[in-house]
Structure formats: C-alpha cells, structure tokens
Amino acid sequence: MDNNSELGNKWNNRVFIVIRLWLYVAIPITLLLLPATYFDNGESLCLSILLLGQECYACGMTRAMMHLIHLDFADAVYFNPISFLVLPLLIYVWAKFFWKDWRTYRGSK
Q1: Relative to the CA of 8, which of 43, 52, 81, 96 has its CA 20 to 30 Å away?
Q2: Is the pTM of this model over 0.90?
Q3: Helix 61-69 crosses helix 83-107 at what angle (to 10 degrees)?
Q4: Is-contact 72 83, C-beta < 8 A?
Q5: C-alpha torsion sign, points 74, 80, 81, 86
Q6: Segment 70-104, tens digit of pLDDT
Q7: SS3 letters for 89-107?
Q8: Rounded (5°) CA angle 67-68-70
C-alpha cells in the first residue's frame, strides 16, 4: 500500500509540474496576443491608492509591462519608468523557475 501512495504522490507532483510548465509558456503568449492597451482603462487595484489615496513605486507597472513587451517604449516610460528594470528581472526569475521545473520533469521519468 505504501508503494501505491508513493506512486500516487509522484503522479500528482508530475501533473502539477506539467501544469506549471504549460502556464510558464501560455501566460507570456497570452499577454503578447492581447493588445498593449488591454489594461490601460479601468479602476486601479493598487492598495496604496485604494487605502491611502497615494501612488506607490509599482503603480502603473502592469500597464507599463504590457506596453514594454509590445515594444511601445514611450508609453511604458509614461506608465512606470521602473518597468525597464523590472522586466529583465522578471524574465530571469520566470526562466529560472521554468528551467527548474523542466529539469524536475525530465528527471522524474
């Protein structure tokens, strides 16, 4: 019975890794397929604005990232100039997590 439990856990872990790998690929593709202005309208969800009525350093980051990945640099700077530092870091962390899960997936066969 212990072997079945271990096999089930290995199967569950493998399924979750496959789902994560799929999301690592699907999310950036989805963001690229959406228009750069997709997040430009609507109310702010920033807690700093909602609770304090004051912008924080990350305000406009989502909109800036969308414009940046669509190579619209002028609007990216307008929404949040820090996005030029954050995007490379985000790509690095995203790739690191993807690579870690990919190696785990390939090693668990």
Answers
A1: 96
A2: no
A3: 70
A4: no
A5: negative
A6: 999 999 999 999 999 999 999 999 999 999 999 99
A7: HHHHHHHHHHHHHHHHHHH
A8: 65
